[in-house]
Amino acid sequence: MIWSLFRPRAPELPRPAGDLALAMLLVRAARIDGDYDTEEVALIRTALARRFGAERGAELLTEAEAQEAQAGDTVHLTRPIKDIVPLEERGSVLQDLWRIVLSDQRRDPYEDGLMRVVSNLLGLSDRDSALARQAVQREAR
């Protein structure tokens, strides 16, 4: 309708860079069950250091913790991640996420839902996610 042209639009959130988007997604995975603990922070720090170096990883974590809640939906975070992580390496992103989700030895329905959505948005299947989860569970034994 013509009147919709005059309606104010909601401001679009700026798209974060891929490295920050990945850090924000890891923080979101840790926070989604309402319990953001030191073990999850350590796992995020390790994942970011492995990908971007210890110093840059620490900077990204600080920035991600401050900005994650205002980041918008998960689609907004996964798009830039796909720009920096090739398809064949996205399983390692799922493994990092599963390490965080499973760090407390229980699976929350919100965590499961996030993992299902993220896997799909990263162009991976439920099977890819299950294999990533199983690999992380084998590591923990």
Characteristics of this structure?
mainly alpha; globular; 141 residues; single chain; TerB-like
What does this structure look like?
This protein is an all-alpha fold and 141 residues long. The chain contains 7 helices and no strands. It has a single domain (16-140), classed as TerB-like (Orthogonal Bundle), CATH 1.10.3680. Helix 5 runs antiparallel to helix 6. The N and C termini lie far apart (60 Å).
Can I get a quick summary?
This protein is mostly helical and 141 residues long.
CATH hierarchy class name: Mainly Alpha
Radius of gyration, in Å, reads 16 Å
According to DSSP, the number of beta strands is 0
Measured as a percent range, the helix fraction is: 55-70%
Question: What's the CATH architecture name?
Answer: Orthogonal Bundle
Separation of termini?
60 Å
Continuous helix count: 7
| Percentage of residues in strands | under 5%
Give me the CATH fold name. TerB-like
Provide the domain count: 1
What characterizes the major β-sheet? none
The CATH superfamily name is TerB-like
Order of helices and strands: HHHHHHH
Shape annotation: globular
Question: Structural class, judged by helices and strands?
Answer: mainly alpha
Low-confidence stretches: none
Mean pLDDT level: 91
List the helices and strands and how they pair.
Elements: H1 18-31, H2 38-52, H3 54-67, H4 74-84, H5 90-101, H6 109-121, H7 126-140
Helix pairs in contact: 1-2, 1-3, 1-4, 1-5, 2-3, 2-5, 4-6, 5-6, 5-7
